[in-house]
């Protein structure tokens, strides 16, 4: 494998997904290459004196990543890919690889990192505006909602629903915390530290590589005055744990994106935002509170996007402390406040705004779905 040529091709479209910085790759046996992406692109053998992020991975595994037979996040979780330096930049690597596979044109206008763009209207916004006003989120027993009923009554209208006692057949749900830590023993995740809530979707957040088992063991540690609780959010569920969970049957298995795991103590917070896929959110340990708002409140909530083409979308309106002088239309927004208990499964339709906070020490698994309803 011609590493220089491969990395040149990989990074040639990096600016299209908002990447800027110096990446150092260490393939072992003295084989090292760096790539600097700034105003232009420079790829050279050897070691850079001031790399922003260093990625250590075997040459065979790296070839597998580029061929699509190896997954970056799974390699990281299993310790076969190691990352040092600015984890925020490293989190863009999967997007960059996907862009290279799609053949993202080099001449495509560059996305600026941590830039805000106007949020465009979605199909779900219009669908939401056409529905009767939803006054509360329904709670139903999981055993009482068939796949046919779900696809008839909730899915086509983009209506959220909470399903109780939904994880009874999950081996992972039946385990004690001590038993589950055994399965995490060799696994790693990315944790968020500091004011991560104030830097939503920003690569400037303080990301760190952390042992999952050690992180769970530290969850009950008292925080210093003013210290924000760390959060292990949006990590891929490693293959070793997939057999311990169950994919909800409401969607065809082929439509599910790789499930993600979220672990944190009381107080971890993800501010109001919305995703571009349907979501089945399973609460395994503890409690999580959600504040939900319907998609058609996009303008009232001061919604912005991370890219011109429509990326992740955050909101300037804080549902706990709305600034009605700056956003008077926010007075019309109906905020739904719900709490998920251990064993609950939430259907969160594409386009619905949500703020999420851990009420107690919490572990959740979510399943984003390529259902075809977005946009």
Features:
single chain, 375 residues, alpha+beta, Nonspecific Lipid-transfer Protein, Chain A, Jelly Rolls, 2 domains, seven-stranded antiparallel β-sheet, seven-stranded mixed β-sheet
- Summed up, the domain count is 2
CATH top level of the largest domain is Mainly Beta
Give me the side-by-side strand order of the main sheet. Answer: 6-16-17-13-20-15-18
Residue-averaged pLDDT:
88
Helix content: 10-25%
CATH architecture label of the largest domain: Sandwich
Biggest β-sheet description? 7 strands, antiparallel
Oligomeric nature of the chains: single chain
Q: Span from first to last CA?
A: 39 Å
Short description:
This protein has helices at 3-11, 59-67, 72-77, 87-90, 93-102, 123-130, 147-153, 171-174, 177-184, 212-217, 239-242, and strands at 21-26, 32-37, 41-45, 53-57, 81-85, 117-118, 138-141, 161-164, 188-193, 206-211, 232-236, 260-264, 269-274, 278-285, 288-293, 303-305, 313-315, 336-340, 345-348, 353-358, 362-369.
Describe the secondary structure blueprint for this structure:
Blueprint: H1 3-11, E1 21-26, E2 32-37, E3 41-45, E4 53-57, H2 59-67, H3 72-77, E5 81-85, H4 87-90, H5 93-102, E6 117-118, H6 123-130, E7 138-141, H7 147-153, E8 161-164, H8 171-174, H9 177-184, E9 188-193, E10 206-211, H10 212-217, E11 232-236, H11 239-242, E12 260-264, E13 269-274, E14 278-285, E15 288-293, E16 303-305, E17 313-315, E18 336-340, E19 345-348, E20 353-358, E21 362-369
Parallel strand pairs: 1-4, 7-8
Antiparallel strand pairs: 1-2, 2-3, 4-5, 6-16, 8-19, 9-10, 11-12, 12-21, 13-17, 13-20, 14-19, 14-21, 15-18, 15-20, 16-17
